[in-house]
Amino acid sequence: MDPRFTFGLWTVGNPGRDPFGGPTREPLDPADSVRKLAELGAWGVSLHDDDLVPWGTAAAERDRIVARFKSALEESGLGVGMATTNLFGHPAFKDGAFTSNDRAVRRAAVGKAMRSIDLGAELGAEVYVFWGGREGTEAAVAKDPRDALDRYREAIDVLADYVVEQGYELRFALEPKPNEPRGDMFLPTIGHALHFIGTLNRPEMVGVNPEVAHETMAGLSFVHGVGQALWAGKLFHIDLNAQRIGRYDQDFRFGAEDLKEAFLLVRLLERAGYEGPRHFDAHAYRNEDPDGVWEFAAGCMRTYLALAERARHFDSLPEVREALSAAGATELAQPTVDGSGPDDLKAEADALDALAARGYANERLDQLVVDVLLGVR
Amino acid sequence: MDPRFTFGLWTVGNPGRDPFGGPTREPLDPADSVRKLAELGAWGVSLHDDDLVPWGTAAAERDRIVARFKSALEESGLGVGMATTNLFGHPAFKDGAFTSNDRAVRRAAVGKAMRSIDLGAELGAEVYVFWGGREGTEAAVAKDPRDALDRYREAIDVLADYVVEQGYELRFALEPKPNEPRGDMFLPTIGHALHFIGTLNRPEMVGVNPEVAHETMAGLSFVHGVGQALWAGKLFHIDLNAQRIGRYDQDFRFGAEDLKEAFLLVRLLERAGYEGPRHFDAHAYRNEDPDGVWEFAAGCMRTYLALAERARHFDSLPEVREALSAAGATELAQPTVDGSGPDDLKAEADALDALAARGYANERLDQLVVDVLLGVR
Amino acid sequence: MDPRFTFGLWTVGNPGRDPFGGPTREPLDPADSVRKLAELGAWGVSLHDDDLVPWGTAAAERDRIVARFKSALEESGLGVGMATTNLFGHPAFKDGAFTSNDRAVRRAAVGKAMRSIDLGAELGAEVYVFWGGREGTEAAVAKDPRDALDRYREAIDVLADYVVEQGYELRFALEPKPNEPRGDMFLPTIGHALHFIGTLNRPEMVGVNPEVAHETMAGLSFVHGVGQALWAGKLFHIDLNAQRIGRYDQDFRFGAEDLKEAFLLVRLLERAGYEGPRHFDAHAYRNEDPDGVWEFAAGCMRTYLALAERARHFDSLPEVREALSAAGATELAQPTVDGSGPDDLKAEADALDALAARGYANERLDQLVVDVLLGVR
Amino acid sequence: MDPRFTFGLWTVGNPGRDPFGGPTREPLDPADSVRKLAELGAWGVSLHDDDLVPWGTAAAERDRIVARFKSALEESGLGVGMATTNLFGHPAFKDGAFTSNDRAVRRAAVGKAMRSIDLGAELGAEVYVFWGGREGTEAAVAKDPRDALDRYREAIDVLADYVVEQGYELRFALEPKPNEPRGDMFLPTIGHALHFIGTLNRPEMVGVNPEVAHETMAGLSFVHGVGQALWAGKLFHIDLNAQRIGRYDQDFRFGAEDLKEAFLLVRLLERAGYEGPRHFDAHAYRNEDPDGVWEFAAGCMRTYLALAERARHFDSLPEVREALSAAGATELAQPTVDGSGPDDLKAEADALDALAARGYANERLDQLVVDVLLGVR
Predict the structure, then answer these.
(1) How far is CA D141 from CA B90, B291, B301, D180, in A?
(2) Which end of chain C has the lower number of beta carbons within 10 A, N or C?
(3) Residue B1 — pLDDT band, cuts 50, 70, 90?
(4) Are the beta carbons of B359 and C290 separated by less than 8 Å?
(5) Which of residues 257-316 of D touch A (CB under 8 A)?
(6) A269: Cα separation from own chain's centroid
């Protein structure tokens, strides 16, 4: 099956605002984005409630906007891969949404999420994402993290119940991020989110939506993180982009940074049979004009496909299979203990000195990755 | 209850070797370390198997060493807070221990851990720690992370069974670390470890041993991470030291970096009623002589006690209680939804515009932390 | 002399906008900021051209605004510590100002800086700052860094000539930053800026304006960086705030992060006799209301004064003098070679083995810093 | 001219020791390394004094070792690209070498450097490198950075005089590094080193030796840094390897991380006509056996050559030339002001609004880099 590429309305629609300057591009009409993405070969789009229906829109106008958007989707044949709630833009969320210290804000956040879930269901979204953009602190003393996690869990539990009660088909995916816009955010990594899911009332309904940029900000291996999510059966969605470690949230074009990691990620997704959307949560550089936005969007898909092809080629090479074998890569899938008792195992510890000589051919294997990436093999 | 301070034998015994230079201090006799730590007011020690009994020691000599060490403990009145296996020093572990690509190495690692658990139980350790120092990759292509997690889980499951079968009282604590000595390590953060524990056969027997330096290397909030571990009932042990973000593993004296975070950590541990050892996994600067080592050890405990006193003082101040209230810190403990239905909550979302005006007094509150830390309040 | 505290108009006037949400506070009238800062005990203010006179203001209105601002300064007795040009906010600067690939933009940038220098001179600013907020790249291939440095130098040379020709008293200070809002910025650190200054036509007229947050983003020691600037006689101005390593630009309240580094910085500035403004380039947390802004401003000054007092106290303690001596801190000021010839020095290398035993008492000394910071000594 | 590849004796000879484990490979005889590197196509080697002549070797033995090494060089036809002093391994350097607080250590360091310079000159090294591995602090209070820079400068000045007095042909190159093995090191970046060179007595004799890993640890753009060094005429030597941002010093095989940055670096070096050695300061992964070491060495050169070929191909493509032009990349080489006076320039500032619409085609251009890297164009 061809990978299904999706883009957030806010990605191609990003106007280029940043903390030090205003917009450099005009806003896009969501219906125009849909048409243009279809032309470029995308499978679908994703959206926040406010991307489509600006906060404060009256009910009648809301319905008109949604109907018009659904028409555009139908005409262009695009699907909706994912929907989510904007719980970070409104100034009332400045201290958090589900974990605001103000109970009335928390209740409003849950209510806004319910309205937005209705919209997502109406549009046929497969997955419903929660990114806790404001769930965190700068002054850590202001929130006991245990209380914050209680409130976070309560909100997700209530919303999962809501989905079930409404008979919606949605699954949830939590999107971790370590910091920005808050100094430190709750559920900062894939690991924290996976653990949190295990504490929910309906854990089976909730997975993760990891993002390249978010794990990379903290310098964590994205491939290992996605690996743990796949291992847990919890990769419900994925956000593809590029980022340098230890920086502001860059959301660059997929593949624009760290090609080797991007290659290993694509290889892992393809080999694992991940079937969800390949979702680009990225935006064009701020110094692009509207044409540059579509170069950006095309580039994301182009690089994914090129990396998928390189991954297939890599795995087809005899010298790669040989190097993987010299590295013992396949041996790692074999059980270690397999029924042996403590006495045997303790005795085998004495083999350590003899086992130290073996080399693992990692230089050879990694150079093969580089060779394949550079197209010289 | 007074906090129980413990030190690893390898901490005060650290000879000052680093990647660019050899030792600057003589090795210490573990029995001498025990006596000196008792003098300084520590409650106990912790150890790797090889710290006490060098790898390759014959059985009779091993027994003599252990007996002598137990005598030193008894004489000085020190306890053993924690024991662990050195699964990283031997060259055979260069590709991993429980997740080495070589099955024979994995089996030897499990066997070495069993032997070491026997030693820990003999010495009366409360907690048995697993730090996967070599479980990771530089060339990520060499290990499928899903296989690695399978093997990691298998090893912990087998060892937990072993403890139960032997009738030992030990609980396990997993110690996460993002990188160093491997390029990327499996179970890189508290969150990943907590999730992994939930996949084990005996999850109730296993908790985490978070370390200040390890989460801080990745720039994650240690207070939030420990908060999630406490929230999960999984803080079985803790490693205290100091570290700058984004650097090699520094293991500085507790409190030597980021005093505010150290204050908030001590406050959290004391308020949460954490009863385990306050374990210092740190070492003296390499340019210290033996006297400096004991200045280092005394400083760790001195700073912890000073911060605990400052935390109590902070919480006793009326202006702090007022600022916490203005921040809504206590309001976060109140349930958000409390039985309200979707219709009510959706309607309350309309309150957002009105809720935006409120300030959260975080500057006032955080300045109170600084004032208290600096002793000016 | 009491330290002269200054605040940027844009600091207390920061409306709380960030990449994920709009403003949370109303804009402040600069004249009101001046009055309020005077009340709180500040010595003066600093400003970008556009902070006072919005871009596009007609000449007559510009003069009215400036006159009104000068009245407010006079009435409140505040001075202008520093002025600077906003060369980052206008969308035309999206590819750079002095190093934009578009020559017309570069010329407009130089022209805007000249206009703004006129304003700074009119307001009596002591120092004129250049922060190259847009001078950099995301796609490094788009600019040869050697060309960019040529253009940067040309702009500063032309502007320095302009100042001399106009007979203004201004000195320039370059403000380095590693990244954000650009992926990578030219002159990323104090060191790069100091070197660049040495290549200018009027190097004596140009110094640096280091900022805590900027060096800290890259994990560099701010104290060492400021030390090198002082050593070079180039510390013309300084931006005080707080930041965690490896994150988005946080601009927190001075002292809110890394109290030990803040202490060492204040101690260095006070001991070195730095006479320029102590300029706070920071802003209140986004979840503050207008009252919180003034808590923030007061806190910056309060912490500086507390740290200056702690530094004096530290240096007055006999045990500190003793520890500094044991560390050899004063011995570092003595020349090493002092006329000795190669033969003597080569022979003295043989002393290395004997010299290895000495300890440097750094644990003792650093613990004294912590003790003094915590007010327990 | 073909690029001249060199390897440090310590790189292929690295035994795989790290902070958590001992060596995994036997030491290599320098003469064997020379022969093997010649076979693989290297141009030469580099060395620390102690790599060849272990510290403490008697004079006669020293001469024998050197003679044997020179024979090996002659037989294999290899040159010596660079020599340097090991001023970090001996325990006496634990508080610094040229900036140790102990004056006797500083003198011994200068003497050891003189002896080592003699060796470098005898072996015909082109460049003499200074890496201040121990010049720094963990406890910053222990050294006034201004004193440290005085001592650093004094040492380099004395040694430059020594070279001139001896009539050696050597040029010096300073190698910056931000941290590790010290908490914070003096001259942490290329910029700091370039500035420092400007303060020396013989600045013309001294340049820099930047290392990929060192700038990357701090998250700085290596391409921009090398660009500033080239711009200053100060790129005397270069250390090639690979590193992830914000980690321990990894010294991976060149090209093993961040292929785009490696591509841009090679393109810059080749276009700038850099004629010095392409020096690999890297080592094989610790889990390699001896064969893996030579895979590693071959991979470094192979990737450099592949990237140089890709760079030539990139610059030959018409679509690249077009995209560079659309980006204005060549326009940046044109002077900005070119004799225009202030009145003209101020007037041209009004053009900003009109100039804002232009796009800079950076997405297109950067995607071309990715396409070329992946061999799909």
Answers:
(1) 38, 19, 21, 18
(2) N
(3) low
(4) yes
(5) 257-260, 284-285, 287-293, 295-296, 298-299, 302-303, 306-307, 310
(6) 13
In degrees and rounded to multiples of 5, residue D175 shows phi and psi of -110, 110
Query: What pLDDT, in 10s, does the model give residues A198-254?
Result: 999 999 999 999 999 999 999 999 999 999 999 999 999 999 999 999 999 999 999
Put simply, whether A339 touches B (Cβ < 8 Å) is no
pLDDT digit string (tens) for chain C, length 377 residues: 689 999 999 999 999 999 999 999 999 999 999 999 999 999 999 999 999 999 999 999 999 999 999 999 999 999 999 999 999 999 999 999 999 999 999 999 999 999 999 999 999 999 999 999 999 999 999 999 999 999 999 999 999 999 999 999 999 999 999 999 999 999 999 999 999 999 999 999 999 999 999 999 999 999 999 999 999 999 999 999 999 999 999 999 999 999 999 999 999 999 999 999 999 999 999 999 999 999 999 999 999 999 999 999 999 999 999 999 999 999 999 999 999 999 999 999 999 999 999 999 999 999 999 999 999 99
Q: Does B367 touch chain C (CB under 8 A)?
A: yes
Q: Which of B19, B88, B94 lies nearest to residue D24, judging by beta carbons? A: B94
CA distance D310 to chain C (A): 14
Using CB atoms, pick whichever of A23, A91, A138 lies closest to residue C24.
A91
Contact D260 A260 (CB under 8 A): no
Please indicate if any CB of chain D lies within 8 Å of the CB of A356.
yes
What SS3 state is found at D85? Answer: coil
- Residues within 8 A of D (CB atoms), C 42-101 only: 55-56, 90-95, 98-101
Of D295, D287, B134, D283, nearest to A359 by C-alpha is: D287
* Active-site residue (options: C49, C51, C95, C281): C51
Q: How far is CA A52 from the centre of its chain?
A: 21
User: Is C48 part of the annotated catalytic residue set?
Assistant: yes
B225 neighbourhood in chain A, CB within 8 Å: 192
Q: With an 8 Å Cβ cutoff, are D191 and C186 in contact?
A: no
Provide the token pair at B13: 């015994």
Dihedral sign (CA B165, B168, B169, B170)? negative
D255 lies within 8 A of chain A by CB: yes
State the nearest Cα–Cα gap between B371 and chain C, in angstroms. Answer: 8
* DSSP output for B92-159: GGGG-STT-SSHHHHHHHHHHHHHHHHHHHHTT-SEEEEE-TT-EESSGGGS-HHHHHHHHHHHHHHH
Inter-CA distances, C134 with A38, C177, C188, C344, Å:
34, 10, 12, 53
Packed helices C290-316 and C318-326: angle between N→C axes, nearest 10 degrees: 70
Residue found by looking up tokens 């004056």 in the block: D103
What pTM was computed for the model? 0.98
This complex has an ipTM of 0.98
CA–CA dist C146, D296 (Å, integer): 33
Mutate to test the interface with C, among D86, D102, D141, D324 (most CBs of C within 10 A): D141
Q: Which H helix or E strand runs over C83?
A: strand C79-84
For C125-160, write each residue's pLDDT tens digit. Answer: 999 999 999 999 999 999 999 999 999 999 999 999
CA distances from B306 to B44, B244, B258, B276, C316 (A): 20, 21, 15, 19, 22
Query: What residues does A8 pair with on adjacent strands?
Result: A46
Rounded CA-CA distance A254/D280 in Å is 30
Burial of A261: CB neighbours in 10 Å, binned 0-12, 13-18, 19+: buried
Q: Which residue of D has its CA nearest to C161?
A: D342
Residues in chain B closer than 8 A to A92 (CB atoms) = 352-353, 355-356
Strands (E), D254-302: 278-280
Q: Least CB-CB distance to D247: which of B133, B180, B250?
A: B180
